[in-house]
Each structure stands twice: as C-alpha cells, then as structure tokens.
Automatic annotation (TrEMBL), chain A:
Residues 105-179 are annotated as: Disordered. This is Zinc ribbon domain containing 2. InterPro entries: SSSCA1, UPF0148_domain. It comes from Pygocentrus nattereri. Residues 138-148 have a biased composition (Pro residues). The gene is ZNRD2.
Automatic annotation (TrEMBL), chain B:
InterPro entries: BBS10, Cpn60/GroEL/TCP-1, GROEL-like_equatorial_sf. GO terms for biological process: chaperone-mediated protein complex assembly. GO terms for molecular function: ATP binding. Pfam families: Cpn60_TCP1. Residues 442-456 have a biased composition (Low complexity). Transmembrane segments: none annotated. It comes from Pygocentrus nattereri (Red-bellied piranha). This is Bardet-Biedl syndrome 10. Residues 431-456 are annotated as: Disordered.
Length: 230, 615
C-alpha cells in the first residue's frame, strides 16, 4: 500500500483477542452514545461545538441553556469500570489475574489450589469498599485459610444500618462456598432495599414491617456467617 | 482570543453517527415520519432528509458542514439526503476500522489528509469509468431486449419510485398518476422528444401549482392554463381570445420615467387636473381594446369603476412572477409610450372555485412544445399539502437531472469527431472541482457550443423515455445500484486504487441494509437473485418469460400493484460523488477555531459586531 510503506509495517501484529474485545466494547459504547444523541437532537436539544472535559463526548444543550453530556450522565463510565479503586469487579479481576500469573508455582509444590480469591473477604461488601479492601489484601492462594475476625462483618448487623458502611481492618480470608456467598449477597441486597424504603416510609405500619424485615435479614446473615465459619 | 481544537476522526464519526441515528428510522417506504413542533405551535410532519436535518439545532462546525453538503446535493438531485448520511457514516467507520488495523503510531492527521485526497482522486478518475462500464450496461441489459418490460412506461415507474419513499401510500397512489398526467399535458404527449417540458416544469414549478387545503387528496387535478391565487375584482363573463394588459403599478401614479424631473406646483384645480390626466390614460387603454387588466398591485377605485362601466375585467394583487411568466411565454409587447404596461393575449379567462376560495383561471396559448397547465394539489391539512408540494417539485428536479445526464452521456459517446471537445469538457470538469467548494457534478447547463449539439441529438430521439431506458439510465429501486456497484468495485479490474475501492465497496451496502433492516435475509436473497439474473443476461440468454419484474421489486412499492419502480442511476452516481467529496472535506479539516462572533448568522446591528469582536 502506498499509504503506509514504512518499516513499521513489518513490525505490525494483528490485535490480540483482548484488544479486539476492548475495541468492540468501545464501538458499542460509541454506538449507544450516538443513538442517545440522535434521540436528544430530535427532542430539540442543540448540538454544541464543544466536548465534555471528562469523556470527550460532544455536548448537548437543552432549551434552558444547560449543557448535558450523554455519556457521563446516562452511560456507565468506560474508564471507571476498569479502575480497581472504584469498582469491585475490576479489583477482583485484577487480583485473579495476578494470582493466575503466579499460580504454576504453588501447584508445583503440590498444594491444592484453593478457591479462587473471589471470596477473599468472605462477605460481600458495598462495592466501592470491597474492591479496595480486597485489592489491598491479595494473598497467595497456597496460604492456609485463616479464620476471619468477627470484626470482618460488623456493618451488616446494624438493624438501622445505613447503606454506607466502612471497610473493616484486614483479616485472613477463608474460602467460602459460592452458594453461601450468593445467599449472603441476596440478603444484603434486600437489607439495603429495606433500609431505603424505611427512610422514605410515611406510615407506621409500613415502618414496623420494614424494621422486622431488616431484623430478619440480619438474623439470616448471622446464621450464614456461622454456617460458613463452622 | 480564538480557541483551537484538534479534530479527530472520532469526532467526525460521533457527529455523523448522531445524524445517522436521526434519519435512519425514516428511510424507505416503511420508514416513519418525524413530527416537529415549533414554539409558535406550528406542526411540521416530514420524512424528507434535508428538511429534517435543517430543522435540528446544530452548532457543531462539522455538523454544519455536513448539512451544507447535504443541502447542496439536494438542490441538484432532490434525492438521497438520508442515503447521504448513511453512506457517509459507513465510509467514516470503514476508514476508522482500517486505521485500527494499522499500527496506531503511524496514523496521523497527515495520513487522514492523504486518504482524503486518495478518495477524491478515485471519485474524479475511476468512479465514472466503473459506473459507465460495469453498472450502466447491466441496466440496459435488464431493460433492453429480452429483459424486463415496464408496464405503463418509464415515467410512471420513475415517479412511483420517487414518490413512494416520501409520502404515505395513499398519497403516493394519488400523486403518481397525477404527476404523470401533468407532465403529459404540459408536454402535449406526442411531443415527448425534447427535454424542454421537463426543464420548463423544473424551473417554473413554484408558479404552476395551486394549493387547496381542506379538500380530500383525491380532488387534486390538472387544469389547463394558469391559475392565479386571487379573485377577480371586476368580473364579466366572456369567451374567446382576448387582449390583456399587464401592469405593475397603480394607474393613478404619474407614469414618469426614472430620471425625469418633475415639478409640483399646487393649484386650485389640481384635483381636476389629475382626474383629467387619469381619464386620458384610461381612454388610451380603451383604444388598445383590452378586455382584461392584470395588475400586481391594488388599483384605485376610479379605475375599477371605469372598468365596470366599460366591460373590462380587472384582477388585482396577482403574483408578479406569474405575470412575468405569462408575458415571457406569450412574448408580450411592451408599450413604448408607458414602459410599465405590457399587452398580451389570453385564449380564455374564467373564475375557478376550488375548496372555499375562488381563483382566476387564465388560458395561455402553447409555445413550442410546452402547453401551460396548473397542478391543483388538495389535502385535508397543511402538513400533507406541504409534503405533496415538496415531493412534486422534487420529482421534476429529479427528472431534469436524469434527462440532462443521459443526454450528456449520449452526446459524449456519440461525439466521435471531437476528442478534443470531450477533453475540453474534462478540463472544465476538473477545473470545476478545484475552484468550486460546493460538491457537485458540473451541472452548469450546457454552454452554447454544447447546447447546439444537444439540439442535434434531440432531433434523433424517437421517444425520450424509451431512449433513457435503452441507454441504461434507470435501475430497480431498493438496492440494485448498490449491489452492482459493490460487485464492480470488488471484482472488476485490478488496477487503480484498491484501498478506496474496498472502502467504498464495504460502505455502499449500508444503504440498502438500512432500507431492509427489518428483513435482512430477504435482502440477501434478492441480492443473490439479481446477480444471477444479470450473469444470465450478460451471457446473452433472454429471460424465459417477460415478466413485469415484480420479483425485482425488493418488496418495495405499493403492495399488489406488481409494477416495478425504478430510480435514475445518475442520482446514485451523484450521491456517491457528493459523499466522497464530503469525506474529503471532513478529513482535511485539521483544526477548528472557535470565534466569539457567530459567523454564519447575519446580525442585524453592525454595532453589536464591533463590541463583540475582541482580538
């Protein structure tokens, strides 16, 4: 090709599968952004000549002269979901990748590989705290499981608990059965929902019922933790 | 201070992608319309791509540039605004994909510009050849001897193909035969050998239609003569050809030539004097034996009174452009005494009742091959009425573009003597491309030397439309052109710019894919069928039975009619060229400079400008 007759061409390799996936994901995101922008244009928004500082998408302006970025406001961030400090999934996948990279050594030792370190903390935590906590705590899989400290889960026992809960100090990570983990996740989710509803409830009867639900959730969580520890 | 912003390919794609999402849902006969509500309460329902894009608020410079290109293309062909955006988006994405496949470090703005120039060079040098040698012959095979026959002729098929994608089915069923009838009456059917009627209709259509709101669309008709949207102020029944006076100023104004000086002195009997001057003028008019006075302004009461007394009909507040057309058509005589008066002849005059209004109806004698008729368009509301008007104007623009291109093509191929002439034409075209910013084929009407040869070639056409069919000027709607071009770009010839060919080949199929987005498999079947049929025809086989071509409809057009709709190849050719030129413009943009003063708006006060300009 006349266009690119440089020596760099000979060093070019086709993109790997991971890179292709990233490119594909980026393309789908761009398509979604275009579709949203098209819908807003038809609603009467004005397409400005400026770009958003955070993500680089073209800004729209509504009739009240307020600027609006489609990507920042409506879509999940493209970059944030890869940042381990902000996203539990990203952190866990980063840890997993690191451990998979050093896994051949422990296996050569004959030690049975433990459960994947997804269950490091044992208990599912609020996302932005769990990720950071688990990322900091990445242990090699060959370590024997240690009993987690009870302080590992004080936050969930609060019946009037708020949704924001602090990360507990690091404790040894025991392996957890996936079914238990799912159960704990589900109960925690219901607990959070009940808390939110309670904050908005106006009638006494509803509040009483929500409080009893929260108590039941806390009891379930305690039972699950005991089951896991036993 | 100006802020500079580096332009990336991604920014272009975002902008064009947003526009694509806007128009994609309106493509084709199955597409939807967009309902716009203005702050004034006015509602506009439209499917016309250019109209939709013009009504959006677009402040981004690239978006405005794309819109300019779309409008320029629409002015020439009145077709393909939505396809323009779809093709543009697909082409830009193809360029981005090929950039991703290369090493990222070597892709720079310079590479963009290089690719842009490559595409433009391909557009000017190779595209014409590919279409002329690989697409047009297929079209003439398809409709030539042994191929499909178009029921009802080429013109209804062309009009149907155009109208069906732009208005609702019911409206399309009424408009198609109406427009064909309008053309036939204007060209007086036996004389359909010249392009004169089409050119006349295209340039004068705004003066040759009347809008009537409140009646069902089925009441639309074609009436002989000119219809003026005003009623007679003084009316008297009469028959036969009459002399008419066309006047542009009020008769009681002193008719003094510009530049003459006039002294005014008030006298006691001034009123009497001015009245007597008026009486003299009116007496002079009577001597001319005019029976009708057509005035573009309001006349004083005394003139109307005089008319009543002397049996003269008066029509006031006419459209001055229609009066000009009338005078030009009839070669009206200018009165040497009073330069603002023209005298012409009418074959008849009458009153016409349309809907709730009365109109004036004037008969005009034919001039050459053109007989003036007026298209009366009726619709229950103003929205569909505007759509009908827009579509009707578009039909004649499209037909004119088709006729001129086919004649030009024929002239070039017949022109054995003057190789230098066609070389001259090529040079002219190249210089056009360099000097003119607007993307267009050099559609400047043929200059003197070419028009004479056009006239010569016109004499040899038996029937204009059959000639167009034989020359391979039309293809079935629904993606036949795109399929053929895709095939030609990929398989015919291994010379030239392969990269541009492959980019264009991949992008061109995006248009019919959007058209058939609700049944992609059907489109693939039709695509395969078309290619196999063409292979057969190319090898010289005739089709076993002369069908009406309903299996080539791609499922479009009014269901059950079984008739084939066609579209002109030249419009599609022009579309591809316009898109390639637009891509060139977009890729060559290096930086956007944001200025304080809005450059595209005409500000009312110049003082505002000077305050804001702050370098």
């Amino acid at each position: 090709m006349a266009l690119n007759a440089d020596e760099e061409d000979f060093e070019w390799e086709p993109p790997t599968e991971a890179e292709m996936k990233v490119i594909q994901a980026r393309r789908e995101r761009q398509d979604k952004i275009s579709k949203l922008m098209g819908d807003y244009l038809l609603k009467g928004y004005k397409m400005l000549g400026e770009c958003c500082e955070l993500c680089g998408t073209i800004l729209l302006q509504d009739k009240q002269k307020k600027n609006y970025c489609v990507a920042c406001q409506e879509l999940d961030s493209d970059v944030d979901k890869d940042n381990p400090a902000l996203n539990a999934q990203a952190a866990l996948s980063q840890v997993r990748e690191r451990q998979l990279a050093i896994q051949p050594h422990p296996q050569a030792n004959g030690a049975p590989p433990t459960e994947p370190p997804l269950s490091i903390t044992g208990l599912p935590r609020p996302e932005h705290c769990e990720g950071a906590a688990s990322g900091l705590r990445a242990p090699p899989p060959s370590q024997p499981p240690t009993v987690p400290t009870p302080s590992g889960s004080p936050a969930f026992l609060l019946p009037t608990g708020t949704t924001l809960q602090t990360a507990s100090p690091p404790a040894g990570p025991p392996p957890t059965h996936p079914a238990l983990m799912h159960a704990e996740e589900a109960v925690l989710h219901k607990l959070r929902w009940a808390t939110q509803e309670l904050q908005q409830a106006v009638s006494v009867e509803t509040s009483i019922q929500l409080c009893s639900l929260i108590r039941t959730c806390a009891d379930s969580l305690r039972s699950l933790r005991e089951l896991r520890l036993s | 201070m100006c802020e500079a912003e580096a332009v990336s390919l991604q920014a272009c794609i975002s902008v064009v992608g947003a526009l694509e999402c806007v128009v994609r849902r309106c493509v084709g006969p199955d597409g939807g319309s967009v309902l716009f509500t203005k702050d004034t309460g006015e509602i506009v329902i439209t499917r016309h791509g250019q109209r939709i894009l013009t009504m959006l608020h677009l402040d981004h410079p690239m978006a405005r540039m794309v819109l300019e290109c779309v409008c320029a293309h629409d002015r020439i062909t009145a077709d393909g605004s939505k396809s323009f955006i779809l093709l543009l988006a697909a082409l830009l994405r193809g360029i981005r994909d090929s950039a991703n496949r290369r090493h990222n470090a070597s892709w720079s703005p310079a590479t963009n510009r290089k690719l842009a120039n490559q595409l433009l060079a391909f557009c000017w040098k190779e595209l014409d050849d590919i279409i002329a040698h690989d697409v047009v012959p297929y079209a003439s095979f398809l409709f030539g001897f042994g191929g499909y026959r178009l029921e009802g002729g080429v013109l209804p098929a062309l009009v149907e193909g155009y109208v069906a994608g732009r208005v609702a089915t019911g409206q399309a069923e009424i408009l198609t035969p109406l427009l064909c009838e309008f053309y036939k009456k204007v060209s007086h059917e036996q004389d359909s050998t010249t392009v004169e009627p089409i050119t006349f209709l295209h340039s004068n259509f705004p003066l040759l239609y009347a809008k009537v709101s409140g009646l069902p669309a089925g009441c639309s008709q074609v009436v002989k003569g000119l219809v003026l949207a005003c009623d007679w102020s003084v009316w008297r029944e009469a028959e036969g050809p009459v002399k008419a006076l066309v006047i542009c100023e009020s008769l009681d104004k002193p008719l003094v030539a510009i530049g003459d000086s006039m002294s005014i002195c008030f006298q006691q009997d001034w009123l009497l004097r001015s009245e007597s001057a008026m009486k003299q003028r009116l007496a002079r008019l009577l001597c001319l034996q005019v029976s009708v006075v057509l005035s573009s302004v309001k006349q004083p009461e005394c003139v109307l009174e005089w008319a009543r007394l002397n049996g003269v009909c008066v029509l006031e507040c006419c459209d001055s452009e229609q009066l000009d057309l009338l005078c030009e058509f009839n070669a009206a005589e200018m009165l040497s005494v009073q330069p603002m008066l023209r005298v012409t002849t009418l074959t008849f005059y009458s009153r016409l009742q349309l809907g709730g209004c009365r109109y004036a109806h004037l008969g005009v004698s034919p001039n050459g091959s053109v007989h003036i008729h007026t298209l009366v368009l009726c619709a229950p509301a103003s929205g569909p009425l505007e759509q009908s008007v827009c579509v009707s104007q578009g039909v004649f623009t499209m037909l004119q573009h088709l006729c001129l291109s086919v004649l030009r093509m024929r002239e070039q191929s017949n022109d054995t003597v003057s190789l230098s002439d066609s070389h001259q034409y090529q040079i002219e075209r190249d210089s056009d491309s360099l000097t003119h910013d607007q993307p267009h084929m050099s559609t400047t009407l043929p200059d003197q030397s070419q028009s004479s040869s056009l006239d010569q070639s016109q004499g040899s056409i038996k029937d204009l439309w059959a000639g167009i069919l034989k020359a391979g000027g039309v293809l079935p709607v629904g993606g036949a052109f795109e399929v053929l071009l895709h095939h030609s770009l990929l398989h015919c010839g291994n010379h030239g710019d392969l990269e541009s060919r492959s980019l264009l080949a991949k992008a061109i199929l995006s248009v019919p894919r959007s058209l058939h987005s609700h049944r992609p498999r059907y489109f693939l079947q039709q695509q395969a069928q078309l290619m196999s049929k063409l292979q057969l025809l190319k090898q010289g086989h005739t089709l076993s039975e002369l069908r009406s071509g309903s299996d080539l409809r791609f499922g479009l057009g009014p269901a059950g009619t079984g008739s084939l709709s066609v579209e002109p190849i030249c419009s599609k050719h022009q579309l591809v060229m316009s898109v390639l030129q637009c891509v060139n413009r977009l890729l060559c943009v290096g930086t956007i400079l944001h200025t304080r003063t809005p450059l595209y708006r005409t500000l009312t006060a110049s003082t505002e400008d000077s305050e804001e300009e702050d370098v």
